[in-house]
Amino acid sequence: MEVPPGAKSWDSRSGLGDYQVARSLSQSILLSADMETMDRKSGTFQVRDSYDSLLRLTHHLDHFSDAIQKARRISKEAKEKANQANRRANDAELSKLKAEEELKRERRRLESKLSKVQSNFEAWLEAKKKKYEGELEASKVNAVEAFKSSIELRDIKADFASLSYIQVGIDLKEKLKKILPDFNLVLVLLESDNEEEADEGGDGKI
User: What is the mean pLDDT of residues 2-11?
Assistant: First the structure.
């Protein structure tokens, strides 16, 4: 009786984590044709063939056990890699959220600082405006007071009075011309009398 290379004892089935898996694999290996062949053989041959079949089954179960363990190991490694990838993704998302929150805080800080600077500047500008308005009003008052007591204002008043007097005389002459048709002749006579009085006055002084 030959033993397949690498065959192990029947106890090796304990390497499988689930006996139902081994049972299912056994049923799939023992084909119906093999079962019919075993039924047609005598008892001695059936025992020998059964033992050979069990050895082959054990050999295949070892391979299936290794395959299952390898699959589980690969699955475990894949899960670990997936978990690592998820952790990295979560860390990246957390870092992104932290950066966004930090950016928001910095933006709020700068906006608050800008608002304070703007408020302080507006207050300073308003104070300067009031100060300049007060100084301008005081300058106007001082200029008016200085002009009232200046020689220029007295000269202007004198010139205005003279112009007013002359204008009054002109207006009076125009009114008299309208009332007296011979007003021009009267003016000539008056001017002649004034000249004679002036001449006489000059002779008396001499």
Answer: 43
Q: Where residue 55 falls among pLDDT bands split at 50, 70, 90?
A: low
Distance from CA of residue 135 to its chain's centroid?
42
Side-chain half-sphere CA neighbours of 32 within 13 A = 0
Position of tokens 């390497």? Answer: 15
Give the model confidence (pLDDT) of 83-97 as tens digits: 898 888 888 888 888
Give the start-to-end residue ranges of the domains of the chain: 10-93, 151-206
What is the model's pTM? 0.33
Task: Answer whether 64's CB lies under 8 Å from 100's CB.
Answer: no
Question: Can you tell me the distance from the alpha carbon of 16 to that of 85, in angstroms, rounded to the nearest whole number?
Answer: 31
Residue 186: which of 195, 178, 177 has the closest Cα? 177
End-to-end CA distance of the chain: 189
